[in-house]
Amino acid sequence: MRTLVVGIGDCKVAAEPVELVTFALGSCIAVAIWDPVVKVGGLLHFMLPDSSVDRATQGRANPFRYADTGTPLLFRLAYEKGAEKRRLQVRLAGGANVVDSGGVFNIGRRNHAAVRKILWKAGVLVHGEEVGGSVSRTVRLDVETGRCTVSEPSGVVRELRAGKPAAVPEGGAECRAAS
């Protein structure tokens, strides 16, 4: 199977049997979406919650770098390939605190809160997530089957199942896959 690598501040959407993969998510968040009927999948790897920090272009130069510009664009690209909002399975991973051990900036937590708010406002439910903690993660999405895995540098690999939609965790970003 062919693999398409999604870099930092990047996004790929496919309607063919490929594996989408993004490596070394620290405080960044991966948004994986998949439509099981038309077998369209997409993977976004965004770095920051809000494009307003980009004073020059408000995120237009690289919309996938930010949650507020990249997330809607990911969905639009999937819709162009035949995906429908009501069928999409949405999974999130990343948002770790790997650089800022003192928690001064909380970029991972802010990224998670931003994407959850964007999805909530759009009426999109999250079906599984693995966010927070202090280790980097690699995310893989098989566009043919919808199987999504999260792996850590230690070699641990878990399937991020698309179960019942998960509620926003109260008071924090630390949660595991819904089953």
Features:
179 residues; alpha+beta; 60s Ribosomal Protein L30, Chain: A; five-stranded mixed β-sheet; 2 helices; 16% helix; 30% strand; disordered C terminus
| Helix-strand makeup class | alpha+beta
CATH overall fold name: 60s Ribosomal Protein L30, Chain: A
Largest sheet: 5 strands, mixed
Distance between the termini: 27 Å
**CATH architectural group:** 2-Layer Sandwich
Number of helices: 2
Explain what this protein looks like in three dimensions.
This protein has a single domain, classed as 60s Ribosomal Protein L30, Chain: A (2-Layer Sandwich), CATH 3.30.1330.200. 16% of the residues lie in helices and 30% in strands. The protein is built from 2 helices and 10 strands. The protein has helices at residues 67-80, 107-121; strands at 2-5, 10-14, 18-25, 29-35, 40-46, 89-94, 128-131, 137-142, 148-151, 157-159. The strands form 2 sheets. A 5-stranded mixed sheet has the order 1-3-8-9-10, with no helix packed on it. The protein has a 5-stranded mixed sheet with strand order 2-5-4-6-7. Residues 165-179 have low confidence and may be disordered.
